[in-house]
């Protein structure tokens, strides 16, 4: 019996639909970054502006990879024997959320620094983001290496093991980040509620971050279960389940980020550390005083 790359008949309409939607989300998020970076009349340090815009770059690259991955998947539906196309769609879709997670780490770090609430987190912010991003990079490289091997019948077993290791690295550090961020939010709400009340939408910003993080975490756990089940397992053989617990959670998280612009929100916050690099002047324009209540 000839070896098959797909253990089911992949859907062309589904692949095209997700490729288009992720492509549109890429354009929307790119425009939002451009809008904050170059079009807003906010007065703040130019270096700070670049940093706040750059935190969304990994997320946008992740969206590009999702879109390209589903384009490759659409091509693969018409050419089921192409190992190159299969590897491309498999690897891109597999590692895209890792890049998105990097943005979540950086957003959390900037929220903590900008609101001057570092004392309420149990780890030094000097190393917090660096450790998580470093772990993210390792996870990405490991998963990419395993994803490339999965398409080869002779190396499929090792490819599966390598991908699982990469996913476990992501889950361990991402899960740790999720728990730590929740503990931090509880501590701030308990001990610095009055201080944090000056920052509009602070609690909502963390709720959005938690929901998006949970979606990525659920997706990562699902992929581990999928790979443990094997190529012929019930999950790996069910395309609807793969779309429902892989593509959909990432899509929902990406849409949520459209309605909550973190770059713009961070640019509206004013740190209490006077004279530091994080000083953002909230006096946008004299004529705009009293009209700062904007939706995100």
UniProtKB/TrEMBL annotation:
Record's keyword annotation contains Cell division: no
Subcellular location: Membrane
Pfam families named in the record: RTA1
Keyword Iron included in the entry's annotation: no
Keywords, comma-separated and alphabetical: Membrane, Transmembrane, Transmembrane helix
Membrane-spanning segments: 12-31, 52-71, 83-107, 127-152, 158-183, 203-222, 242-262
Signal peptide stretch: none
InterPro entries: RTA1
Any single GO CC term annotated in Swiss-Prot or TrEMBL for this entry: membrane
Membrane topology category: Multi-pass membrane protein
Family: Belongs to the lipid-translocating exporter (LTE) (TC 9.A.26.1) family.
Protein name per UniProt: 7-aminocholesterol resistance
Organism: Komagataella phaffii (strain ATCC 76273 / CBS 7435 / CECT 11047 / NRRL Y-11430 / Wegner 21-1) (Yeast)
Gene assigned in the entry: RTA1
